[in-house]
Amino acid sequence: MKSHQTTIIDIAKHLSISKSTVSRALTGHPSVKPETREAVLAVAQEMDYQRNMLSISLITNKTKTIGIIVPEFMTSFFPQVVVGAQEIAAQKGYNVLISQCNESYETEVANSRVMLANRVDGVLVSLSKETRNFDHWKTFHRKGIPIVFFNRVCEEMAVPKVVVDDYDAAFKAVEHLIQTGKKRIAHLAGPDSLAISRKRLNGYEDALRKYNFPVDEDLIISYDLTLSKVRIYIRHLLELENPPDGIFAINDPTAIEAIQVIKQHGLRIPEDIAVVGFSNNYASSFIEPSLTTISQPVKEIGRTAMGLLLDLMDKETALWKPIIKTLETELIVRNSTVKKIS
């Protein structure tokens, strides 16, 4: 049997009204009487009517779809950002198309093309660790499709961005280690392709300088966020002639791996070596010892980014402004830096 999908014609016949009236009722047009609109909605639900978004997009040049591209879903950070973004999109009647590129530049480019092919009305983006060329995102801008970057942003594009103060957060983290008595603080940094890596490194270095500690290049290791490499780097640091007594990590997964290696070496945390992470991932409060970290307003990042994007979508391109929203962070002190009191 050939399947039949309910159309506005079926609803119009059922109610003995014109299909144009049905169409206006479904889109909330003010010219339709409230009782007519209620009748149309009731029949549409009864007949399991699904709006033909392709037809609507051809008429309005809008798909009511927003794209979100993130670098990974392995940690809790990006899923929570997406949840926050979806909350705002749903309130405005938008669907969300989500993709992750597994930290691959090539996959990010491919995902951006999928977004273009699906004619998204706008896109939220956090860059992969490999991304150094931004031509694929500049294409969106040329086509008049608004972009908002968050967390990992493209500094060379004049578009809205949502970030936290990575420099200040890193400064607070290292200052905390110094104030607990640590004197040789190492930093496992992220790739320098990411602005967040550079800003957190700058915050680390300036905190040392404030307290007249030397910036020792032997204690700074930049890596590509491949967690399997953390064990190699931590072992190297612990085997130095003068090993560190504190570690500031680019993110919580890095810090958690570091804790595991330090414990395997029979060292006490935080007495022998203290560890601070960044992001306040879900696991950071459950690891033993619990991880001192920087908390970011994760869902609020998503909500703010989506709000900026929706605002752009309501304006002519000539009125777009490259607003930068910087959200606050908080140092969460746990047992990896402060000894647990029995």
UniProtKB/TrEMBL annotation:
SMART domains: HTH_LACI. The keyword Cytoplasm does not apply. The keyword Lyase does not apply. Residues 6-60 form the HTH lacI-type domain. GO terms for molecular function: DNA-binding transcription factor activity; transcription cis-regulatory region binding. InterPro entries: HTH_LacI, Lambda_DNA-bd_dom_sf, Peripla_BP/Lac1_sug-bd_dom, Peripla_BP_I. Pfam families: LacI, Peripla_BP_1. Keywords: DNA-binding, Transcription, Transcription regulation. This is LacI family transcriptional regulator.
